[in-house]
Amino acid sequence: xxxxxxxxxxxxxxxxxxxxxxxxxxxxxxxxxxxxxxxxxxxxxxxxxxxxxxxxxxxxxxxxxxxxxxxxxxxxxxxxxxxxxxxxxxxxxxxxxxxxxxxxxxxxxxxxxxxxxxxxxxxxxxxxxxxxxxxxxxxxxxxxxxxxxxxxxxxxxxxxxxxxxxxxxxxxxxxxxxxxxxxxxxxxxxxxxxxxxxxxxxxxxxxxxxxxxxxxxxxxxxxxxxxxxxxxxxxxxxxxxxxxxxxxxxxxxxxxxxxxxxxxxxxxxxxxxxxxxxxxxxxxxxxxxxxxxxxxxxxxxxxxxxxxxxxxxxxxxxxxxxxxxxxxxxxxxxxxxxxxxxxxxxx
Length: 347
What we know:
The chain is mainly beta. The protein has one domain (82-346): Lipocalin. The protein is 7% helix and 55% strand. The protein has 2 helices and 11 strands, in the order ααβββββββββββ. It has helices spanning 2-17, 19-25; strands spanning 82-99, 117-118, 121-131, 138-154, 160-179, 186-206, 218-241, 247-270, 281-305, 308-319, 331-346. It has a 10-stranded antiparallel β-barrel. The chain is elongated, with a radius of gyration of 49 Å.
């Protein structure tokens, strides 16, 4: 018993002398870690801009709204802006070429009426329009007409009088624009629009009263042709200014394609035949047709003032298919050519 107590005391003294050994031999529980504190949400910082100064007034030389004068686009060589007008007159020699009712079996002689020579005629034209600034172009309306008649006398199978007539009218509604970017001292002007056209021509053959009746007994024959329609019209004008001069060379080409209706008629009267039947006949024919029109003008212009200029030159014009009816083999067209003078004004 004494030996056991002695050993316990010796062990107790050894543990007391070496505390680190007792920590390794007898482990102790570690204290619990403290709970992490909750962080407050961070608010995004918005940068504060400095206060902007009030807008300054626009300089007076800046361009304003549309349709105001712009010196970069409204070139001084171009015609002045605003209202403008043109008046021209052409002295023309007119020729009608037709082949009418040649293959119409019911008609005596095929229904052919000879032609006479038309007189020279004056064809007036008037135009009024408005030019917009800043290169926006111009709008215009124009009206032109021609009226002429003529006659002749034939001595084939007796004395026969011929009488011919031609009338036409056109109305153009156009938009046009000027270009100055071709080559030096040269301007280009193009136009596009709609043309309304009407053309009428007829021929009449008659035997003077009191003279011998022709062998076929027909004393009066008449052929008429009327065309009316509308279609696009387009044109191109080139002006070359001569150096150190108010004069310029001008070339204008206009073309149109008019779609409309042709109405033709033939009538005749004469003395009764051997059986007492009257020699009367009348027939009408109609069909749709496209009529091309070409007008060319070449001449010289002279500018008196920036708003006044004059033109004098030559004109050629042709209307094709204006009397074309395929089912009766009828053909008809006319051309005119002559001198033309024009005066242009701006205000």
